[in-house]
Structure formats: structure tokens, C-alpha cells
């Protein structure tokens, strides 16, 4: 008889943890999961889902304005933050209940409370101690606020979605995808928005041409302060005063620190095991997601590889299948599509130009900058952009970058083609749907001259 209480004990019921739990249980394993905060993790509660809902809300402002060029007339269009929050909360609660229900229907034992390791095969939740043959750490990440005087007055992305009313003015600190998305929707939901970033352009790590365009587009709707940073925040009677490192003074009713996330690996009892952390606090794992302790594994944002919900799902499923099913091919991180839900959207798949060069690849660049047909009547000056990187050795498309409304929706199909090894010749042989934004992917003919 097996001496362990469970075959797999998962700490964290976010995307990766829930997927691993369900797959393992369906493969016949005895599984338990512990969650101290909320089912569905960051994505469902304070990340992808509410962020996209707020982005949808923000797009209506642009739609109302654009409609005038098409003959629509309206008056008294008003936005109610409280209604948006109420409906968002209702949807998030629905999704959380679905996550919990999926676990229960799969036969997974659910513990609601903080879990800590008390050894390589033991977990304590409250006053109960359980044993498990395998343990999975799927604890995710948490927003990071830089240490400066008055930083306690800044809120993070977690608190934004709990705000019962919108501030009159807000300062967003950061230049990554969270900061860019938040600045985009706040500016369109009637909040005077300032974006403060220490770099000279937004979205570090993305393709340079994409960064140029988004930096320019965001400057249309926000007060953008680049190459500067917050030195301190001073609380005043009815606002916050921001003192920047260059000496510039700003005022805002609220400050959001959208300055990255770090793995949530503190106080897990790791000291009772051989599990190791890197300098960022991420759990070190091998290609099979195994830690230095043979019985303990980790996936998702806690391991500091690719912090995306679909990646955590993929890793959790792969691990469960490996432990309790058939051996599968190693997880691949090539051609992972991703999107930034700013205005306009950014979507990308494959290599950026700097990444391709760093690998020593010889490639051609095809690109196009244009105003979409819609804006010939709306009058909006918004720019769209598309770029393909094509490997000279075999004509394969190795990078795709898109700036346009609904870019994420359109990039999904391109990602399928890229993962199937599509060549530029295949793109060229595909007929475009006219007139659409997406047809630009198959009508690029001229190589960019170096």
C-alpha cells in the first residue's frame, strides 16, 4: 500500500496549478491542491481577464469618436466606472467558481489556506499535515514596487481592479506591457493620465520598430515623461506629489507602480528542502521542471521563464502527463504568440530583429506602415504596422510583428502557420481577404533595404 496521502500535491490554484491537477487526476493520480487567495490565480482575478474587460470598455471611447465620420450623431455619452467594476466582479466570480468546480469534478481534494513545505514530501495547510509522492509549486508572481521614499502610497495592478471609482488623475510608473495597457485604458476612461518611464521608449524587449510606434501612439493620449523616474512621493491633503529624479514635479490623485512582477516564493518552507532560488527569487528547475529536490517541481511565473498564462497551462499539462501518463516531447518555447492590449494592440510571434541577429541568422525584413481603411473616414491618425522576418536559408517566417486594432486576434492564425513551418512563399501564395487589416500579412512584397 502507498504510504503517501497523495500522488501529487499542488500549491497554487492558478492556471498552471489547476491544469496540472486536473490532468493528473484524470490520469488516475490522487491529487490535492491548496490555494490561499483566489482560484484562477493572477490571470482570472487581477490580470489578463479584468485587464481585457477594461480594455474593451476603453475602446468604446474611440468607437464613439470614430462613428461621427460615418454619419452617427449622439449626445450625452457618459462612462460609469462603478457599473464596469460591478459587471467585472460578477464575471470574475463566475470564472473563479468554474475553476473550483473543475477541480472538484476531477476528484481533486481542495484545501483553502496557505500551504508550506515541511520537508521534501510533506505539506502543512493550517493544522493539517499531508504527505505526497510529488509536490508542484505553482505559486505564481506578485507585483514589485521599487523602494523609494513614499513608495507605500503607490498601488499596484492588484488594487486597480478593486477601485470603486476612478481617480481624476493618475500617474503610471513603468514602461512594460502592464504600464502601457493601464495607461491606455485609464486615458480613455476619463482619467488624466501621466506615464513615467526611465527608458527612452516603451515596451523593452519588443521589436524596436514596434516600440517606436507604440511610444508615439501613447503620447497622443497620455502625458508621457521618458528618461526619468520617481525619486519620492509626498502625500498631500487631496493628491500625491511626485518628485522625479530630474527635479520635475508632478501631481496625481493616484499612483500605480506597474514596474514588473517577481516570483511569489517567500515563506514557502523551502529551507526544509533542497529547492534553490535564483537571484530574482525564482525557483530553479531543469528541463523537466524538477527542482534540486527530486520530489518537488515548479511551473509558471514562479520559475521565471515565460510569464504568460498559456505557457503555465502548457507546462502544467506537460508535467502531469510526464509524471502520470506517457512521456511527451520536451516543452518548446519557440514561436510563442503574445499580445499587448494597449491602443492600438500589439501582437508578436517569433524573433525580433535584435534576437535574430544575436543568433547569427541571416534574414530579410518585409514591413508596412499604414492607416487602416476605417480611419480614412474617422479622421483618426492612428498608425498600423506589420513586419515579417524571413530566414534567408529556408524562406521560413521566423518573426511576425503587428500593431493594429485586434492585433492579438489576428496573430493567432499567423502563429499556427509559423509553428507549421510556413515560408514567405506560402504567405505570398495565400489570397488576402479584401479589404481587411489581416490581408497585409500576405501582400508584403518588397524587402526592406538595409
Which key features would you list for this structure?
single chain, 450 residues, FAD/NAD(P)-binding domain, Enolase-like, domain 1, seven-stranded mixed sheet, 21 strands, 30% helix, globular
Instruction: Report Rg.
Output: 24 Å
- Portion in beta strands: 15-25%
Shape: globular
* Terminal Cα span: 69 Å
Count of discrete alpha- or pi-helical segments spanning 4 or more residues: 12
CATH topology call of the largest domain: FAD/NAD(P)-binding domain
Label the CATH architecture of the largest domain.
Answer: 3-Layer(bba) Sandwich
- Taking pLDDT < 50 over at least 5 consecutive residues as the criterion, the unreliable ranges are none
CATH superfamily of the largest domain: FAD/NAD(P)-binding domain
Tally of separate domains: 3
Whole-number average pLDDT?
96
Biggest sheet descriptor: 7 strands, mixed
| Helical residue percent band | 25-40%
Overall structural class, as computed from helix and strand content, comes to alpha/beta
Tell me, what is the CATH class of the largest domain? Alpha Beta
Work out the number of β strands. 21
Amino acid at each position: 500500500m502507498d504510504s503517501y496521502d497523495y500522488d501529487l500535491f499542488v500549491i497554487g490554484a492558478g492556471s498552471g496549478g489547476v491544469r496540472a491537477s486536473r490532468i493528473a487526476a484524470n490520469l488516475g493520480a490522487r491529487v490535492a491542491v491548496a490555494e490561499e487567495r483566489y482560484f484562477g490565480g493572477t490571470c482570472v482575478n487581477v490580470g489578463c481577464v479584468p485587464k481585457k474587460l477594461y480594455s474593451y470598455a476603453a475602446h468604446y471611447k474611440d468607437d464613439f469618436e470614430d462613428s461621427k465620420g460615418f454619419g452617427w450623431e449622439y449626445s450625452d455619452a457618459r462612462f460609469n466606472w462603478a457599473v464596469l467594476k460591478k459587471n467585472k466582479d460578477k464575471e470574475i466570480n463566475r470564472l473563479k467558481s468554474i475553476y473550483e468546480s473543475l477541480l472538484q469534478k476531477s476528484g481533486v481534494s481542495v484545501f483553502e489556506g496557505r500551504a508550506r513545505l515541511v520537508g521534501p514530501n510533506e505539506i502543512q495547510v493550517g493544522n493539517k499535515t499531508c504527505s505526497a509522492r510529488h509536490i508542484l509549486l505553482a505559486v505564481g508572481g506578485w507585483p514589485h514596487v521599487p523602494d523609494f521614499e513614499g513608495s507605500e502610497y503607490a498601488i499596484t495592478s492588484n488594487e486597480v481592479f478593486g477601485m470603486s471609482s476612478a481617480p481624476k488623475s493618475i500617474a503610471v510608473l513603468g514602461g512594460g506591457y502592464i504600464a502601457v495597457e493601464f495607461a491606455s485604458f485609464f486615458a480613455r476612461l476619463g482619467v488624466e493620465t501621466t506615464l513615467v518611464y526611465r527608458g527612452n521608449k516603451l515596451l523593452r524587449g519588443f521589436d524596436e520598430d514596434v516600440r517606436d510606434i507604440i511610444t508615439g501612439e501613447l503620447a497622443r493620449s497620455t502625458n508621457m515623461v521618458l528618461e526619468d523616474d520617481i525619486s519620492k512621493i509626498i502625500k498631500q491633503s487631496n493628491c500625491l506629489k511626485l518628485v522625479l529624479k530630474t527635479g520635475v514635479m508632478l501631481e496625481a490623485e493616484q499612483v500605480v507602480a506597474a514596474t514588473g512582477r517577481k516570483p511569489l516564493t517567500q515563506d514557502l518552507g523551502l529551507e526544509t528542502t533542497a529547492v534553490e532560488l535564483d537571484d530574482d527569487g525564482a525557483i530553479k528547475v531543469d528541463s523537466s521542471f524538477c527542482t534540486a529536490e527530486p520530489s518537488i517541481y515548479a511551473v509558471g511565473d514562479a520559475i521565471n521563464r515565460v510569464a504568460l498564462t498559456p505557457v503555465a497551462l502548457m507546462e502544467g499539462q506537460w508535467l502531469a502527463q510526464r509524471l502520470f501518463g506517457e512521456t511527451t516531447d520536451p516543452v518548446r518555447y519557440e514561436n510563442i504568440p503574445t499580445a499587448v492590449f494597449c491602443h492600438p494592440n500589439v501582437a508578436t510571434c517569433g524573433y525580433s530583429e535584435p534576437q535574430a541577429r544575436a543568433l547569427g541568422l541571416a534574414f530579410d525584413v518585409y514591413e508596412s506602415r499604414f492607416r487602416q481603411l476605417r480611419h480614412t473616414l474617422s479622421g483618426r491618425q492612428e498608425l498600423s504596422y506589420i513586419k515579417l522576418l524571413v530566414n534567408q536559408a529556408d524562406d521560413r517566417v521566423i518573426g511576425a510583428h503587428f500593431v493594429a486594432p485586434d492585433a492579438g486576434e489576428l496573430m493567432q492564425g499567423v502563429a499556427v502557420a509559423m509553428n507549421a513551418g510556413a515560408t514567405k512563399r506560402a504567405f505570398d501564395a495565400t489570397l488576402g481577404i479584401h479589404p481587411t487589416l489581416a490581408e497585409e500579412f500576405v501582400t508584403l512584397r518588397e524587402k526592406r533595404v538595409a
